[in-house]
Amino acid sequence: MMCIKDRAMEVLTLVQTGKCPPIPLVLVDEPGGTYGSHWKRYVETELAARGYISRDDFSLFDLVQSVEGAVSAIDHFYRRYHSLRLVGERLVLRLTATPPEESIACWGERFGDILKPGGELLLSQALAEEVDEPELAHLPRLVMDFNRRHFGRLRQLINAINSLSSQEGTIAARRTL
């Protein structure tokens, strides 16, 4: 019989290696429980400290102690981020709201380490190759030359996008019929 912690590690590994797109991976401990904190400490001391994983990989999951905390983490994950798609060599992040240009420039600098050499992070509309998903055509995009190695840092970028205040950016235009 497979244990829940084993399943969580499997999913975490799939997200960490890019075999699965980023998802809101939320580990819920019982209120006042210590299982989650002990597990996290083990991962820190046995895996991260030995260089088997990056410290950035801790951004791939949230550890909470209530259902409300889990709902909050999931809601935050999808606050502005919608989905992603690989289009040729470019990674396309689809968003529910257009971020301000100054935020995009800041993210380009802050997350330049996850771009291929000479790569960019640009605001875009739907790419021609995305014609097979017309229901998503109205969403604004961030298109980037992702190095396909630093998935913890990619999640940190998604977190930064989702952390924009309500006043920053505009809501994506609704698809017209």
Question: How would you describe this structure to a colleague?
Answer:
By secondary structure, the protein is an alpha+beta fold. The N and C termini lie far apart (50 Å). It folds into 2 domains: 4-77, Rossmann fold (3-Layer(aba) Sandwich); 81-171. The chain is globular and about 50 Å long. It has helices at residues 4-16, 35-48, 67-77, 101-110, 151-162; strands at residues 25-28, 61-64, 81-87, 90-95, 97-98, 121-124, 141-144, 170-171. The strands form 3 sheets. It has a 4-stranded antiparallel beta sheet with strand order 3-4-7-6. A two-stranded parallel sheet has the order 1-2. It has a two-stranded antiparallel sheet with strand order 5-8. The longest helix is centred in the first third of the chain and has 14 residues, at 35-48. Mean pLDDT is 90; it is low at 170-177. The protein has 5 helices and 8 strands; from the N terminus they run αβαβαβββαββαβ.
